[in-house]
Every structure is written in structure tokens, then in C-alpha cells.
Amino acid sequence: MKQSIDDIYEEHMQDIFRYLLSLCREHHLAEDLVQETFLRAYLYLENYRGEDVKPWLFRIAHNVLIDHYRKHKRTIVKEQGFFQRLFGKGKGTEQEVLLKSEVAEVMDAISTLNEQQAQAILLFDYHSLTYKEAAEAMGVTDTYFKVLLYRARQKVRSIRGKENEKND
């Protein structure tokens, strides 16, 4: 590994923070988990032999989140709004309201998916990882990742279709 932990932190901290925030939906918890992620990365960086560190960091972040939930086995009420703030910049008021509504519907639909499907959508669609990077981050094969992503998108479309039928 040629990069220092400082360079890696500067380059990937925002991505890891957004990823963890989208999964846990608590700002302060996400910050704590980012710290734990980069601490673990620092401890094992010299043993890492891969070329691209980004999927490895997402995998560490996911493991840190799982470890946190195992430690704190209770349900935490999630805050909506992260994606609304993320996508709502630079739009007119009406477009912003429509976009916020649509993002909220999609996030509600994603919250009904099982953990692997939700993670597949978040890694690929929201964090723009490639199939290979996202599969590596999740610890699954590329083929299985594509199946997870396909099924997750189908389920989200189905849920949104049912909601639209109710509104019509």
C-alpha cells in the first residue's frame, strides 16, 4: 500500500461518512463509526494487499456498523432527511419539494428491504461504487451482488408502484 492513512482519510472520509449515515441515519453515530473505521484501517493498512482501498474501507465500515449493532441490540429511531439535503441543492422550490418527496419515498422503500439488498442499492446507486467494488465491500461475488441489486431495485419499484396506485 503506497498511500498513507492521512491521504486515504482525506480522499474517502466523506464517502464513508455518507455511507454510514445512510445506513444508521444518526449523525453522531456515523461520526463515531467513521472514526472506528479509520482506526481499524490504520491498524491493518500494512497488511492490505489490494490495489484499490475504497471497497476495503466500505467493507470495514460495514463491519464496524454490524459490530456496533451487535453491541447495542436495540432498535434506534432513524432520522429522515439526509438524502433530502443531499439532493435538494440548487433547485427551484417546487422541484426541491418534489425531489424531497421522491427521495423520501425511495428511502422508505429501501428501509423495507433486507439488509443485503438495502446495502447493495446504497453502495451502487448512492455511493457510485462499481459492481466489483460493491461486491468486494459486501464480501460477495460479483454475480451474487448483481442478483441482490436487481432484486432490490425490483422490490423498490414494486413498492413505489403500489404507492402510486393508492394515490391515483
UniProtKB/TrEMBL annotation:
UniProt keyword terms in alphabetical order: DNA-binding, Sigma factor, Transcription, Transcription regulation
PROSITE patterns: SIGMA70_ECF (PS01063)
Domain RNA polymerase sigma-70 region: start-end pairs: 8-75
Matches recorded under Pfam families: Sigma70_r2, Sigma70_r4_2
UniProt keyword Cell membrane, yes or no: no
Residue intervals of the RNA polymerase sigma factor 70 region 4 type domain: 105-155
Domain of life: Bacteria
Family the UniProt entry places it in: Belongs to the sigma-70 factor family. ECF subfamily.
NCBIfam families: SigM_subfam, sigma70-ECF
Protein name: RNA polymerase sigma factor
Species the sequence originates in: Sutcliffiella horikoshii
